[in-house]
Structure formats: structure tokens, C-alpha cells
Amino acid sequence: MPKKIEFHFNSPEDSPGYLLGQLTILWQRKQKRVLDPLDLTQTQFVLLCALAWLSRESDAVTQVDIANQGNADRMMVSKVLRTLEEKQFITRSEHKVDTRAKVITLTSLGESVLQKALKAIEAADLEFFNNPTFEMPALNKMMVNLIDQNKDVL
């Protein structure tokens, strides 16, 4: 007979990690449903958003900039950007100063797809997180605080 496993929490519903995991799975499913018709994964969408945000401030956004913006693994970012380039959503060109870096730019097709994805995702997020028992700004503030508190994990 196996040893009795001891849990800190009395039930899964008492564990914030379990609940966050369940909520994340449901949220990702909703995002997938919205992004699939646009031929985007959630990761591709996030990296396109990072590129668009960074492009507002600079015309020489690099792969490293995109990885840093999203706290993402650089190798994963490289692979995803390669896929986005194959889909013709971005271009990669030589950096004027840093010969090791590539400048990443949204194409007009990429801008169009991203704009459609943003509208769909933002509507899906508002629907998903709409709950009369709490205010969304308070939820967002709590999540930002938790992210800041746990930056050492990155």
C-alpha cells in the first residue's frame, strides 16, 4: 500500500497554483479558438505583439529585444520568428551596427493579421475575465504585483 501523501491544502480548490493552472488552461483554449482561423499560435501572437509595441519606440527591434519584452527564451523566440518569417508576417534584415543581430519588422500582411488578432483577442479577454464579483483593474494590479514579486524566477 502506498504511503499517504500529505498536502498542505485540504483540496485542489484551496491551492492558488492549481486554480491558476486551471484558469490558464481555459484561457489558452479560448485564445486558441480565436487565433486558429488567423493561422497564429498564442506564442506567435505574443511575439508579434511584442514586436509591434517595441516598434513604436524603435525602428531597429532585434530578436533579443523581443525576447526581453516577453521574458521569453531566446532560442524559442528565434524558432518562432523563423516561422513568422515563413508565413511572411515579418522580415529579418541585417542590423546597421551589430552584425550579429537581425532587425525584425512587421510586414503589411503581418500588420493586418496582428490587427485582426488583437481585436479578436481583446474581445475574448474582456468576455473571459468579465466577472461582476471583481473589478478587472484590481485583478490586473494583483497580477502585476505577483509578477514583480517573482521576477527572480526569470
UniProtKB/TrEMBL annotation:
Pfam families: MarR (PF01047). Keywords: DNA-binding, Transcription, Transcription regulation. The keyword Transcription regulation applies. One of its GO terms (biological process) is response to stress. InterPro entries: HTH_MarR-typ (IPR000835), MarR/SlyA-like (IPR039422), WH-like_DNA-bd_sf (IPR036388), WH_DNA-bd_sf (IPR036390). PANTHER family: TRANSCRIPTIONAL REGULATOR SLYA, TRANSCRIPTIONAL REGULATOR, MARR FAMILY. This is MarR family transcriptional regulator. It comes from Pedobacter duraquae. The lineage of its organism: Bacteria, Pseudomonadati, Bacteroidota, Sphingobacteriia, Sphingobacteriales.
